[in-house]
Please model this.
Amino acid sequence: MMQAVQFTSSPVTRFHEAPVLPLRPSRCSGCSMRGLCVPSGLDDSAMQRLDRIMTRRRVARGEVLFRMGESFTNLYAIRLGHFKTHQVSSEGMEQITGFQMAGELLGMDGIGADRHNCFAVALEDSEVCEIPFDQLEELFAEIPTLLRHFHRTMSQEITREQSNMLLLGNMHAEQRFASFLLNLSALYKARGYSSTSFQLRMSREDIGNYLGLTIESVSRLLSKFKKLEWINVDKREIQISDLPQLKLVAMQPTTSH
Model:
């Protein structure tokens, strides 16, 4: 039986509103994350039209990009940095729903109801490309390749949310943590970075909140994985020493609870 995801008992963290800064034009053609955000094969004319509707926005560490309940108007392609998304219960408790990095889209949660159902907060100084959704819809009608890419992105997001439900519901603590590290490894590899050496941009408390574990459990798992020589840990720096073993741990059969 799947376990219910529990909200943390700590009060929700107070965040700063992102300041209003002069927006700079965004240029997909010169962005290293272009292959993840936009479909390949767009001609110069289509790329220029996409460039014209986007603006670049800086979001400092700890600042809110959008809020739960806020009207939905824009999508945001992460150009630089890392974010976390979280919801807040009626009792004021926070539940982290995901971590996002460069090349991913934020804001799709607001499409259905025209309101965001989560907060998005920068984990470090970051930069996004702000895309007005009404203008993007106009381009969808004129550039079918762009619409197909967007549908594919939404499908991948749904699949990831389903995987997260499995992660939080059926897996024991070691599996959850191994799967979390493997997911980060795959995401960094897809962006051309090392799949075995990276920095955890989120705190241990945030990781525990996301995985349904206490911060003490996260610390114990880091120590255990290090002792078994599966990983090396130096503060937030992670070096995966035994990727096959982590995969074995993540794939262990689960038992019903």
Remarks:
- The chain is about 40% helix and 25% strand.
- The chain has two domains: 16-165, 172-250.
